[in-house]
Please model this.
Amino acid sequence: MRTILRTATASLHERLHRNRIFHGLLRGRLTLPGYRTLLLCLHGFHAPMEARLAAAMGVCGELALSMNGRRRAHLLVEDLRDLGTVEAIIADAPACEGLPDIRTPAQLLDSLYVVDGSRLGGDVQAAAATVRDTFSAIEDWLGRLQMPDHAPVSTSV
Model:
């Protein structure tokens, strides 16, 4: 099922990743103003989407889902404040329009797939960046070592 969903949404992911808001992030060249813009845009999506999901969970109670652990809008606001973004800019930032209607359990699960998947995708991106940075550090370290080509190998345990 995961492979089917990934294949079916691959072109959507590609389009999203080509969006100018994500360029600096995906290329590892994100400036502080670019990061603030990214956080404001993400907040403009997550705040109204979280409200819509919470309302749908009330209507689709048979699924016994909750927003616990899913909410990110408040974390984005905290990050923006920590970066010195004034409250008026946060409050006046545009909110995403055209969010889907969520009236059925299937629509709720579809929407959660996207929202939860974006969080997991972010975790994967962060892990990939850490792996890339770690390999770069190892490569740099090994490049600076002055070792003979055939260093003796110890056989003692």
